[in-house]
Amino acid sequence: MEMDSDLTGSDIDEDVALQFVIEQSLLDCDKPGGHVDPLPEVNSRISANTEKDKVFTAVRTGEEGALRRLVTCRQAFEEADSRGWVPLHEAAVQGNMTILEMIFAGADVESQALDSATILFEASASGNPAVISLLLEHGADPNIPKHTGHLPIHRVAHRGHLQALEILIPVTTWEAVEDSGMSPLHSAAAGGHPECLELLLNAGYDTNFMLEPWVRRNYHDQRKSALFFAVSNGDVRSARLLLEAGAMPNQDPIKCLQVALRLGDPRLVHALLRYGANVNYYCRVNTTHFPSALHHALKDEVLLRMLLNYGYDLRRCFDCPYGEGSHVPSGYEGWTESVIKDTMFCEVITVSWLRDISAHLVRIMLDYVDHVTFCSKLKAALMEQEEWPDICRIQENARSLQHLCRLKIRHCLGRLRLRAPVFMSFLTLPDRLKDYILYREYDFYSQGRPAGPQ
User: Fold this and answer.
1) Quick one: which of 354, 376, 438, 369 has its CA closest to 399?
2) Which parts of 317-386 fold into alpha helices (H)?
3) In the prediction, which pLDDT does 60 show?
4) Beta bridge partners of 254
5) 290 and 317 in contact (C-beta within 8 Å)?
C-alpha cells in the first residue's frame, strides 16, 4: 500500500513506534508475568482489540491450537464485536464442541448480543443437539427472547431441527411462549416442518393459539393462526395435522379457504371443507352480492362442486333486483354514485371473458337448487350457449320428489351442519341416504375421477 504523501516525518516516527508497541504486546501476551508497556494508553486498547479479533478468527475457522495459545488473554474472551457477540456466541454457531468447552472456562453463558440474542438462541440456528445440551448444562436459559420476541424453541421449530426441539420443549415455559406472542406451532408451520408440528402437538401445544396483535402487525394480511401459515405455504400435510388436532379454519381475517382456492389446490380445499371451513365467506374487500368463494372456482368443476356440496348459498347467485327489466337504470350516464357497489352474479358471469362458460356453470348449479328465475341479462347470455336446451328442459319440468326431498333435508340441517360432516355420523340414517344428502355422487375429488357429464 502506498504511503500518504501528506504524512510528516513526525507522523512516520509515531507510526513506527506504534507498530513496535503492537508487535511487543503480541509477544508479551504469551509470557505470564511479562509486560512491556512503553505507551500504556495506546497499548491497552490496541492489544485487547487485536486479541479479540484473533479469538473470533480462531473460533470461526476452528483453529484449536491458536485458541489454546490465546486462552490466557481472558479479556479478549469477554469483549464483544460490532454485533454485540462475545466469542461464545460465535462458538455456539460454529458448533465445535472442543472449542466450546475451551471457551466456557471464562465465558458468561448468559451474554446477549445487541439484538438481545442469547448464546443459546444463536446455537439454535444450527440445531446441533450436543451444543444445545452443553449450553443448557452450563446454565443457559431457554426462556430469554430476542428483541423480536423469538425464543430458541421458535428458531429450531422454524428450521426443522427435530432433535433440538425435543430438547427444548421440556425446558421452555408456557409463560415465556405466551409473552412472546407466538407459538412454536406458528414457526414450524411457517417453516414447513410437519414432523416438528407433530412433536409440538403431542407435547400439548394449543393449535388455536393466535398471534398477538403486536406480532400480527408484521404481516400485511394480519394472519393469526398456525393453520394460515401452513395453507399459505401450500403445505397439505401440515394443514391436515393442524386440522386433525382441532385447528379452527375460520379465525383469520383472510380466510384459509380463500387462500387455498386462490392456490387452486383441491387437496387443501377438501381438507378445509371437511373440517368446517365457511364456504360462504365474504372477502373483506368483496364487492359482489354472492359469496366470494365462487370467484376461484368458475372454471374448475371439481372445486366448484366441492363448494356446492358443502352448502354454498346458490340462491344469492340468482337473486337479481332487475328481474326481467333492463339492467341499465333510467337516466344512467356511465357513472355511479357509489365507488363500491353490490355486484350481481349475472353481471360478473356475462362479462366478455366469462360469458362463454356461463351456461356450463349454470347447468351445474341447477343440480343443487329447485326452480330458479333468470334475469334478463343472464338469460340473454345463456341463450347463446349449447347448454341452453338442457337448461330449458330442467327449468320447464317439475323436479323429482327425490331431489326436492334432498334439498329440504339440507335446508333443515342448515349450512353450519353441512360444513361439519361429522354431524352426519350422529344421524340414524342409512349410509346411502347420508351420501345422497351430501351429494357424494358429485364428489369428483374423493372419487378420483375427472369432472364431466355422468
Assistant:
1) 369
2) 345-349, 358-365, 376-382
3) 80
4) none
5) yes
Cβ within 8 Å of residue 54, ≥6 positions away: 66, 70, 76
Spatial contact of 451 and 302, defined as CB atoms under 8 Å apart: yes
Which comes out higher in pLDDT, residue 77 or 293? 293
- Model pTM? 0.78
For the chain, give the percent of residues with pLDDT over 70.
81
C-alpha cell belonging to residue 265: 389446490
- Chain-centroid distance, C-alpha 324: 47
Which ranges in 249-339 belong to alpha helices (H)?
256-263, 266-274, 301-309
Least confident span in 118-127, 191-200, 281-290, 391-400: 281-290
Count of residues in the chain: 454
* Residues 148, 164: Cα–Cα separation, whole Å: 21
Taking the C-alpha atoms of residue 158 and residue 338, their distance in angstroms, rounded to an integer, is: 46
Q: Which three cell numbers stand for residue 294?
A: 365462487
pLDDT digits (tens, 9 = 90+) for 4-23: 434 344 444 444 444 544 44
Residue burial 59-74, b: 16+ Cβ < 10 Å; e: rest: beeeeeeebeebbebe
